[in-house]
Amino acid sequence: MSRSYAQLISKHSICSLQDRGRTGFQHCGVPVSGPMDSRAWELANVLVDNNDNAAVLETGMPALSLRFAAPAYLGVVAGNDEVTLNEQPMPFSQIRVSKGDVLELGHSRHLHFRYLAIRGGWLGTTVLNSRCTLPALGLPWLQHGAVLPFYTCEVTIEEGQREVLYSPMIPDIPVIPGPDFHYLDRERLQNLFKKMTLDQQLSRQAYGLKEKYPLSGYPKSFDSVASFPGMIQLTPSGHFYVLMRDAQTTGGYLQVLYIPSHYLSAFSQALPGSPVSFKLHSDNSF
Hints:
The chain is mostly beta strands. It has 2 domains: about 5-150, no CATH class; about 175-280, Cyclophilin-like (Cyclophilin). About 10% of the residues lie in helices and about 30% in strands. The protein contains 3 helices and 19 strands. The protein has helices spanning about 40-45, 185-190, 260-270, and strands at about 5-10, 15-20, 55-60, 65-70, 70-75, 85, 90, 95, 100-105, 115-120, 145-150, 175, 195, 205-210, 230-235, 240-245, 255-260, 275, 280. The strands form 4 sheets. A 6-stranded antiparallel β-sheet has the order 7-6-9-4-1-11, with no helix packed on it. A 6-stranded mixed β-sheet has the order 14-16-15-17-12-19. The termini are far apart. The mean pLDDT is about 90.
């Protein structure tokens, strides 16, 4: 196989490379990273017969355009009617591109994160056993002009073209008690399990909720424990934050609830400003 590349030519998009994540280094303060929606990431890789840890391009809601310097076979998980190839609508989730082709993902109306896999996987610098983008480790966000290398693979004419419709949302996101759950009184619990609203500014570090429910008697000091994606923190001002894939590895606030990892993928796809709701389960419900 020879090596080639695609170039990011859209001016206002920021994206990243994500494999399964950077595990085993949390004790050193290194986030796990990895895809925000692991199910969509896996689906993109399956579409092009990649191995189970191939790096995939993860992009948010803004439009994204790539120009290919060589033929390639792509697997795309995005909203319906968002993908074009050389300005022509592309209804399929499996796409063959030729040298010079331009693939565009239009502004997302359905998913917070879209995924673009390439047969053989996107190449990138490996740091601590992972290609996941993380600026703190010298792996910057991919922006206008970025070159994304990949190995070119032979694409046969027999390759199929499937249309995959991906809809991850569920009505209520299950949560279980966190290590500081006992600090929540009945009023806070009742408020928390009403319909809530996501902030407009969301990141791979944390998703904030607009509603504010201050806790009377917030402790001045408490044991700081390890934190990881899915943990819901409560601040002294009463704001709730859900830690996401690039979150810090030790707590700074009360960690009152936890979203199990297989539901965190669905939660990550909620759009900014959208309503969300939680449902409490006992810790033996999963």
